[in-house]
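PROTEIN DESIGN WORKSHEET
SECTION A - STRUCTURE
LENGTH: 319
TOKENS:
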């Protein structure tokens, strides 16, 4: 009897060890910290363009990192807090430099012909960094007499859907002498573990149920076919919907709109990683559907475009 009890205790200890080990080995979301639009606007780091008659303001991230030492120091300190808790980080300043090397910034503004901004600067940076979650940082300094304090807001944004999935805000203790980055670090420290728990919960859901993206199907005006054209007795729209159902995680998606010329799929859950363990985005996922429609028996030429990481469009009828 005593031997059986000992065996049970050993098994229980082994189970606890295995669960703890598995938890410690669990994948963490990759994160990139960026100054929020509000912070950029308040501190004069915005660019303004005429987008087909409408004034558009977008953050000038390059100028932020070239001129503001506080933001570099603050982001570095928060990066350290996240890294100490096992969250992999992507550096925004490095992503901006990569964009410059690829001359991607040439496409950030509206063209001379009046074409609109296809993607925002942060969309382009997301595609380079491939971070799962963007943390938008906003802070302001308050001064009462000789003492300074810092109010901050952290917003965890899913890079693919732009949905807020975590939040923290607070005010640090007033200080006579501490510098702003130190005050901010102390203020964030009291909230960072709860904030990280929210991030991890969202990532765990993605790991189990897939990333969420949006898929649109359109057609060029010059194409004689449409989504009601039949192949072996089935409408093309049904064929596309069946492909989506087969290739999504657990068949999870919503068909939000379907006409003879367009389809909209929302809450489309795609695998977190591909067969080569690379992060999957909307474009990578839809390449499969693009090839499927190009080949027999459909032989439909099509063009694949995307916005950011989480929205992609297949346009039928031309390349």
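SECTION B - SEQUENCE
RESIDUE ASSIGNMENT:
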């Amino acid at each position: 009897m005593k031997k059986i009890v000992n065996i049970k205790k050993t098994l229980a200890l082994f189970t606890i060890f295995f669960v703890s080990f598995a938890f410690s080995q669990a994948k963490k979301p990759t994160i990139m910290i960026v100054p929020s639009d509000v912070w950029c606007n308040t501190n004069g780091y915005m660019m303004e363009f005429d987008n087909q008659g409408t004034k558009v303001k977008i953050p000038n991230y390059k100028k932020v990192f070239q001129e503001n030492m506080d933001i570099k120091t603050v982001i570095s300190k928060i990066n350290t807090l996240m890294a100490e808790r096992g969250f992999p980080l992507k550096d925004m300043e490095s992503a901006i430099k990569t964009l410059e090397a690829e001359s991607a910034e040439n496409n950030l503004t509206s063209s001379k012909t009046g074409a609109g901004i296809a993607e925002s600067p942060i969309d382009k940076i997301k595609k380079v960094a491939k971070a799962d979650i963007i943390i938008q940082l906003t802070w302001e300094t308050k001064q009462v007499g000789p003492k300074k304090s810092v109010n901050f807001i952290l917003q965890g944004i899913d890079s693919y859907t732009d949905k807020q999935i975590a939040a923290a805000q607070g005010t640090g203790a007033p200080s006579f002498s501490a510098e702003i980055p130190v005050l901010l670090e102390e203020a964030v420290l009291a909230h960072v573990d709860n904030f990280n728990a929210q991030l991890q919960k969202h990532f765990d859901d993605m790991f189990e149920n897939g990333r969420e993206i949006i898929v649109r199907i359109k057609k060029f005006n010059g194409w004689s076919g449409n989504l009601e054209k039949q192949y072996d007795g089935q409408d093309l729209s049904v064929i596309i919907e069946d492909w989506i159902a087969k290739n999504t995680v657990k068949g999870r998606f919503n068909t939000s709109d379907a006409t003879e010329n367009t389809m909209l799929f929302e809450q489309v859950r795609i695998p977190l990683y591909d067969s080569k363990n690379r992060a999957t985005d909307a474009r990578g996922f839809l390449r499969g559907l693009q090839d499927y429609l190009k080949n027999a028996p459909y032989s439909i030429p099509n063009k694949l475009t995307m916005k950011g990481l989480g929205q992609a469009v297949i346009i039928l009828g031309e390349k």
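SECTION C - NOTES
The first strand starts at residue 31 and ends at 35.
Residues 27-206 form one domain.
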